[in-house]
């Protein structure tokens, strides 16, 4: 199910790249451990956010993350916003 959601979100943004600029942001959260001189690293969380302005007051955003190296990639949230231009935005 999670793979289908992530694939759907990516497909939405892939179709928009033809006509709109997609902006990416996110972060990587890592840990470094040292025990008796043996150092190791661990990936704790990875998040990739994609957003685009579709024009005419409509924008879209999707946040995808993974909580560790063995966790599945999940769609954390996705939404579409319509800005009426008069101080009101519907999300």
Describe the structure.
With 91 residues, the chain is an alpha+beta fold. It has one domain. It contains 1 helix and 5 strands; from the N terminus they run αβββββ. Strands 1-2-3-4-5 form a 5-stranded antiparallel beta sheet, covered by helices on one side. The longest helix has 15 residues, at 2-16.
Mean pLDDT: 83
What would the principal axes of the Cα set say about the shape? elongated
How much of the sequence is in beta strands? over 45%
Strand order of the largest sheet: 1-2-3-4-5
The major pleated sheet works out as: 5 strands, antiparallel
> Into how many domains do the coordinates divide?
1
Spans of at least 5 consecutive residues whose pLDDT stays below 50 are: none
SSE string, helix = H, strand = E? Answer: HEEEEE
**What is the terminal-to-terminal distance?**
24 Å
Number of helices: 1
Secondary structure: helix percent? 10-25%
Give Rg in angstroms.
17 Å
How many beta-strand segments? 5
Query: Which structural class is indicated by helix and strand composition?
Result: alpha+beta
């Amino acid at each position: 199910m999670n793979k289908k959601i992530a694939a759907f979100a990516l497909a939405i943004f892939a179709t928009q790249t033809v006509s709109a600029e997609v902006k990416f942001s996110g972060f990587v959260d890592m840990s470094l451990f040292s025990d008796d001189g043996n150092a190791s690293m661990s990936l704790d969380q990875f998040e990739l956010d994609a957003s685009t302005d579709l024009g005419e007051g409509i924008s879209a955003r999707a946040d995808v993350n993974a909580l560790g190296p063995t966790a599945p990639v999940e769609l954390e949230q996705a939404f579409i916003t319509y800005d009426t231009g008069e101080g009101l935005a519907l999300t």
